[in-house]
Specification:
homodimer; Isopropylmalate Dehydrogenase; 12 helices; globular; binds 3-isopropylmalic acid; magnesium ion binding (chains A, B); oxidoreductase (chains A, B); amino-acid biosynthesis (chains A, B); manganese (chains A, B)
């Protein structure tokens, strides 16, 4: 199995290295590292080169850590930005479905802002549309104004709805479809298409509509009500970060971007490049370990190996492993050791 | 003082009535009620008639309860919808600044999903741009696709930034400007304009940029870090509902929509029309009472009367008043009695 590795920026490289060590203990993988994001801008003037894109296309799966940082922050539309690499990669690889599972670990209840009784029993999956909407619509900018177009085709909504319903069938058979149908035309289309797909092929799955503002609230107040949440790109971005609060830290959440049957999936932690703590060896690598687990499962079909990583992470947390973001003092290296001990 | 009253739909009428009673005890106001939202669609075929709009324009302040409900939910773009009335009213009255204060009351800490130590000391104000962005941009819909345009002018960003900086000066001198500048052109313009206004006229106020996904998380994890949050229309809608979780219930949050020096302001609870509990006499009227307090303060300049309502609500909660949404059994009428007793 060949895995294209994109360490990216900030804490990216230092959480990638231990993840590759961990994967190395589980099988025989070929890793090839490629410049990406700000690191690629510095050398090649663009966040995603043709070489990196081709290497990803030829691989069996792509592992990405994180991109971005103040060094490349700019409000000048003519300058390259690290996120363009991420958005370009998602689009070019045809990865329209982003899967973000959230299942708070009892060992981390203390690290969460939420009360134990709110968290208990939470087990949800955010299915975020990843290659459409306002992220990819036409943008304009003049001296006096700016615009971004949010655009969705019926086909784009149809296919992401199917991903959500299929996922629900393997879980608890409940889908919340989140939109802003009382204001947006794209949301009214979204709602209509989701209901058509539901009626035609998934009538036995329970379907609920929820407005995005209401969902932001309900996620915090009553998270156990959710099984699968399906929503468009921007809403998914905001809601999955809000949902991260259920896990105690963004440092715990993996994601899988899939959808193209003929190409590799992309696996990355939900968190960013955390430039403020980069280079100190204290970043929490667990979300990247768990992303590697998703890579093994969804990308390479290695279910047993995926479960082994997940169980080892749970076990290490049970043993008391706590990085800074979780209220502890463990370093990145100590986190790797703790998980590796459990894996053995 | 003349107050235009729009009870609207769902629980709207039953939370409006006690609010008018309360206001009646504080001064000599002329109330005129007008059909609005779904109630107006049923009678006049449109959510906002010219008569209602004119009456609002002629008033000194507008008090609105809530609009919407499943009866008028439709994904057919040719059908009238209750929210069009709300959006039309905001736009026609020139109310570009929506102020949403969030200050959890210790008496309600138990009703919140968040831990006491997270809530303690939280006191923030969301300043939401209310008449621009994707809410008002051009919309299209065909058989195969749909679109919504997010559009902002420099002037629109400039004036809302000033509202936020002015508010911060009277508070703790800190503004978080929230955008998605790593993806949206409107956000890059937003960030640039906010910094220009800051540099030119408010350099002594502390200014922080924050991405919307990150803000959704930080609001829950570390709410005490915030003083004033300023953001565009859609982000403000989502974030202020997320912030509502800090108050234990959406049933506690008032809002003021202002910005037009030559016309009335609009005062309304943040929550919706709650059709599921409408007509049962159990809706929490406190957010509407607190909206009336904001009306007295910002709309009519009656500071003492505003403070009296706010103190009475705090007092009643301290006495143990809990409606259903707060985990208790008090009815709407009992809530009015409890607050009125404190007011006396
Ligand atoms: C970095 C940014 C462009 C990206 C996004 O908004 O999609 C990130 O927040 C994410 O959620 O993966
Ligand atoms: C009813 C709806 C159109 C409205 C909005 O999104 O502005 C509401 O959610 C609000 O926040 O006042």
């Amino acid at each position: 199995h060949s895995i294209a590795v994109l360490p990216g920026d900030g804490i990216g490289p230092e959480i990638t290295a231990p993840t590759l060590e961990l994967l190395g203990e589980l099988g025989d993988f070929t890793f090839t590292e490629h410049p990406f994001g700000g690191a690629s801008i510095d050398v090649h003037g663009t966040a995603l080169t043709d070489e990196t894109l081709d290497a990803c296309k030829r691989s069996d799966a792509v592992l990405l850590a994180a991109v971005g940082g103040p060094k490349w922050d700019t409000t000048d539309p003519s300058k390259p930005r690290p996120e363009q690499g991420l958005l370009g990669l998602r689009k070019q690889l045809g990865l329209f479905a982003n899967l973000r599972p959230v299942r708070p670990v009892p060992a981390l209840y203390d690290a969460s802002a939420l009360k134990r009784e709110i968290l208990d029993g939470t087990d949800l999956l955010v299915v975020r549309e990843l290659t459409g909407g306002i992220y990819f619509g036409e943008k304009t900018r003049t001296a006096t104004d700016a615009s971004d177009l949010c655009h969705y085709t019926v086909a784009e909504v149809d296919r992401i709805a199917r991903v959500a319903f299929d996922a629900a069938r393997k879980r608890r058979n409940l889908v919340h479809s989140v939109d802003k149908a009382n204001v947006l035309e794209t949301s009214r289309q979204w709602r209509q298409v989701v209901h058509e797909v539901h009626g035609a092929d998934y009538a036995e799955v329970q379907l609920e509509d929820q407005l995005v503002d209401s969902c932001a609230m309900e996620l915090i107040a009553r998270p156990t009500q959710f099984d699968v949440i399906v929503t468009e790109n921007l809403f998914g971005d905001i809601l999955s970060d809000a949902a991260a609060m259920l896990s105690g830290s963004l440092g715990m959440l993996p994601s899988a971007s899939v959808g193209n049957p003929d190409g590799p999936g992309l696996f990355e932690p939900v968190h960013g490049s955390a430039p403020d703590i980069a280079g100190q060896g204290i970043a929490n690598p667990l979300a990247t370990f768990l992303s590697a687990a998703m890579l093994l499962r969804h990308g390479l079909g290695l279910e047993a190996e995926a479960t082994a990583i997940e169980a080892a992470v749970d076990g290490a947390l049970g043993d008391g492993l706590r990085t800074r973001d979780l209220g502890g003092t463990a370093t990145t290296a100590e986190a790797l050791d703790a998980v590796r001990r459990r894996l053995a």
